[in-house]
Amino acid sequence: MKIQAVLFDWAGTTVDYGSRAPVQVFLEIFRRIGIPISEAEARGPMGQAKREHIASVLSLPRVAGLWKEKFGSIPESADVDRLYADFLPLQLSVLSQGSDVIPGIPQLIDDLRARGLKIGSSTGYTRALMAAVIPNALEQGYAPDVVLCSDEVPAGRPMPWLNLRACEALNVYPPASVVVVDDTPIGIQAARNAGMWAVGITMTGNGLGLSQADTESLPSDELEQRLGQLEADYLAAGAHFVLKKATDLIPVLDEVNSRMASGVRPL
C-alpha cells in the first residue's frame, strides 16, 4: 500500500499564515457583548466548526463566570446561536485579509500531483464563507481537488467525518492510505479518529499564531522553545509526525510509504 491522497487543513496550514483571520472575529464578537476574551482563549478550540468553537469558549470557567455576572445565568444554546449569527457576517467581511496562500504551497501541490497524489482540504468554515476565499486561493495557485466544509458533515473535528467525506469525494480507500496535515491538536485527533496518518504543523498555524513577518522577527531561541512546546502538544494529541511547515512534507511521505511497505498502519 502507498499514499493515495493528502488532506490539508485550510487556515494556518496552506492559507492564512498564523491562522489570524478567525481569531480576530472571535475576539470582536465577545468584545461587542462586553466580555473580552484573550487571544489564547479564542485560539484554544481552533479546528472545531465555528459554532462549536463559540460554545467551547463560552464553556470556559472564566468566560462562563463573566457571562453569569453580566447576564444573570450561564450561557445557553440560544446564546451560542446569537453569537454565531454575529460571527458569520463579520467573518465574511474580514476573510479577504486572511486569504493569502502560505509561501511554497503551490509548488508543494505541484510536487504532490507529480507523484500521482490527490489533494483535499477541510475547514471549520462554512461553504458560504469558503465561497469568498477559494477564488483568491485559486488565483494564487492553490487548487485542491476537493474542499470540505463544516456545514457539510454531521459534526466537525475531532469527529472524523470531514476527512472521511473527503476520501469519498476523492474516491480514495482505505483511510490508511491518506495523510492529514493540520495545525491544531483537534485536527490531529480527527485524523487519528479517521484511521489516517497525522502530521502536525507548528510554525505557520494556530498554535504560534503569528504572521510570517512576526515569526521571522522572534529571537531564534524563543521561536524554537515555542515550537518545541507545540510539537509536544501535537505528539500528545496523536501526531505521527510534526513539521514546522507543510512545505517540509515530502520526506514525511517517503517515510510513510516506507513504513506501509513494511506493514505498518496508522493505528
What does this structure look like?
The protein is of the alpha/beta class. The chain has 2 domains: 5-19 and 100-261, HAD superfamily/HAD-like (Rossmann fold, 3-Layer(aba) Sandwich); 21-97, Putative phosphatase, domain 2 (DNA polymerase, domain 1, Orthogonal Bundle). Helices cover 50% and strands 10% of the residues. The protein has 12 helices and 6 strands. It has helices at residues 21-32, 39-43, 50-58, 61-71, 77-94, 105-114, 127-139, 161-170, 185-193, 212-217, 220-237, 250-261, and strands spanning 5-9, 118-122, 146-148, 178-182, 197-201, 241-243. The chain has a 6-stranded parallel β-sheet, sandwiched between helices. Helix 9 links the parallel strand 4 (178-182) and strand 5 (197-201). Helix 9 runs parallel beside helix 11 (220-237). It is globular, with a radius of gyration of 18 Å. The protein starts with a strand and ends in a 6-residue tail after the last helix. The mean pLDDT is 93.
